[in-house]
Write a structure and sequence with these properties.
This protein is an alpha/beta fold and 572 residues long. The chain contains 14 helices and 25 strands. Bound molecules: adenosine-5'-triphosphate and magnesium ion. The site of adenosine-5'-triphosphate has 15 residues, from helix 3, strand 8 and helix 10.
Length: 572
């Protein structure tokens, strides 16, 4: 993803040719064609370091970095760190890791806090122009004076303070002479504006709080709406791409850059954020899930965070593929999380080595198989792709198969193993169940079966057919593994849509995690390392968890082989 922009530009395919197209890219291409911004494209991804990145951020990252990459431009990673009380270096580090993991390289790593002095000077400039004033109303009063959507606001009694007095007060705000909330700096725009963002918005507030980068250097901090456009201007951003909720802030964005920036000005464009069903995406709610321990952490594999998806086994490619498929538009919609699952299934189908693992084992003894004999059978890695070759899997007299693959009293359409029935063990032999052995409590302890030595490899020379092929492992050779079966964290499509008195937490899926401790995998898994992704045949895609220790491997289910929720919805 980090090819040489220079040569890409020199090869000059028409901008965006072959790549994704959408209204943002169309705007950028028009601007390029018209020679706007001196033919430059400069974007930025501006996370606030107050939480981990989630799949919604991935959409923004793919767009900002993608546009720059495809059009020979630049994209900065800019931390919007203007709110000292909620931000932390832990988040800065996690965000960098996640953007890099997605496969993007930023041109510069920047921090709004690096601009605090320049932002302060911009504010002084506005005061000198008569466009900003220090207001000494309380926060409550400011709210009251603000009016509502249907009523205009009222001017603050401090609105017409002389410039000199404003400058003096603002200097003393910075110097720490006043407690939190004593004064704010506001833009002087229009208290009757139909757009509430234009009713003399607050630009600076006093907050005696230590900042994770500037420490105690400042006790006044700029508001997002002030810092953002000016940070864009400082970095000479051309296209400031953000989500729709900022559409109403654009007039303020333009108001500020028009008054403070000479020459080429950044412009803001809004697109619809990603919404996924069965998912919450607000950082505040994700933080709540972590802090109140509904999940094991920001990287819990059920979280929609990039760290969680990675631990779950998602590949960066599958997430980028998903972002390309959903596209970028101006209209809000909700994407089916099944689309994300589809993207990872497709990608893992191509890349994940196959392994046989029995999740809930039941013992099978082949009574006519020689004691002590071990065969190493060639098992086909991918029946759909012969280039994937074969691997050797040990086979012996005592095996495990999946408990679900046996039924003592099967219904009509059950074709797997049952008393007297014959099935194929994958790439091994046909076996027939002769006897079901139970303990005193009536629980099945083993199935005594016979095998047909003429069916080695899984085909009967007499053309005899069986209707089921089961996966298996050799009991003496299998590796015990812990398997964590993850499912959707919420059991309803719109977890945030709740009646009064309920919260999104009431919609948590009580079965989002099932831990299996007695699973058995074919010996080849012992060679995998943390992060390795495999397909457990017939079951799904799995990824080795960092909790794994030698002899105690742990696998997370990334996704099942088929969409089981679609069936549930159909049955509905
Ligand atoms: P919060 O949910 O706390 O309001 P945020 O998700 O907007 O915060 P930021 O760190 O401000 O968090 O987001 C960084 C960038 O990612 C912003 O440009 C924002 O518009 C974009 N972004 C955030 N959520 C989504 C989403 N669901 N889809 C697309 N882009 C998003
Ligand atoms: Mg935000």
């Amino acid at each position: 993803m980090t090819d040489d922009h220079g040569s890409a530009a020199a090869a000059a395919p028409k901008p965006g040719e072959g790549g994704p197209t959408d209204f943002i890219r169309a705007i950028v291409d028009e601007d390029l064609a018209a020679g706007k911004h001196h033919g430059r494209v400069a974007t930025r991804f501006p996370p606030e370091p107050n939480g981990y990145l989630h799949i919604g951020h991935a959409k923004s990252i793919c767009l900002n970095f993608g546009v720059a990459e495809e059009r020979g431009g630049t994209c900065n990673l800019r931390f919007d760190d203007t709110n000292p009380t909620k931000e932390d270096v832990e988040y800065v580090d996690a965000i960098k890791e996640d953007v890099a993991w997605l496969g993007f390289a930023w041109n510069a790593e920047l921090y709004a806090s690096d601009y605090f002095e320049r932002l302060y000077q911009f504010a002084v400039g506005l005061i000198k122009q008569g466009h900003a004033y220090v207001d000494s109303l309380s926060a409550d009063k400011i709210r009251q004076y603000r009016g509502t959507l249907t009523e205009p606001g009222r001017n603050s009694p401090y609105r017409d303070r002389p410039i000199e007095e404003n400058l003096d007060l603002f200097t003393r705000m910075r110097a720490g002479e006043f407690p939190d909330g004593a004064h704010v700096l506001r833009a002087k725009i229009d208290m009757a504006s139909p757009n509430l963002n234009m009713r003399d918005p607050t630009l600076y507030r006093i907050r005696h709080a230590s900042h994770h980068r500037t420490g105690g250097a400042w006790c006044i901090y700029p508001m997002y709406d002030f810092a953002h456009p000016l940070s864009d201007a400082i970095e000479r951003i051309t296209h400031s791409i953000c989500t729709l909720e900022f559409e109403d802030h654009r007039p303020l964005y333009d108001w500020l850059v028009d008054r403070l920036i000479e020459g080429d000005k950044p412009r803001q464009y809004e697109f619809a954020r990603l919404n996924l069903n069965y998912t919450v995406m607000s950082k505040r709610k994700l933080l709540q899930l972590v802090e109140q321990r509904y999940v094991a952490g920001w990287d819990d594999p059920r979280m929609p965070t990039l760290a969680g998806l990675r631990r779950r086994g998602y590949t960066a490619e599958s997430i980028r593929d998903f972002c390309n498929r959903i596209g970028v538009a101006k209209k809000e919609n909700v994407i089916d999380v099944a689309q994300l699952e589809h993207s990872v299934r497709e990608d893992l189908n191509k890349r994940a080595p196959r392994v046989m693992t029995v999740l809930r084992p039941i013992k099978v003894v082949l009574t006519n198989y020689p004691e002590g004999q071990v065969e190493h059978l060639d098992v086909i890695n991918n029946p759909e792709d012969s280039s994937a070759g074969t691997r050797q899997v040990p086979f012996s007299r005592v095996l495990y198969i999946e408990r679900d693959d046996f039924m003592e009293n099967p219904p009509k359409k059950f074709y797997r193993l049952s008393p007297g029935g014959e099935v194929r063990l994958r790439c091994a032999y046909f076996i027939t169940c002769r006897e079901v052995v139970k303990d005193e409590r009536g629980e099945i302890v083993e199935l005594r079966c016979t095998y047909d030595s003429a069916t080695r490899g899984g085909d009967a020379p007499d053309g005899r057919r069986v209707k089921a092929t089961l996966h298996w492992v050799s009991a003496a050779h299998a590796v015990p593994v812990e398997v964590r079966l993850y499912d959707r964290l919420f059991s309803v499509e719109e977890p945030e849509n709740v009646p009064v008195g309920k919260t999104f937490l009431d919609n948590l899926n009580p079965r989002s995690l099932e831990v299996l401790r007695g699973s058995r995998a074919e010996p080849s898994v012992a060679d995998s390392s943390v992060g390795a992704r495999v397909q457990f045949e017939r079951l799904g895609y799995f990824c080795m968890d960092p909790d794994s220790r030698a002899g105690a491997l742990v696998f997370n289910r990334t996704v099942s082989l088929r969409d089981t929720w679609a069936k549930i919805a159909q049955r509905g």
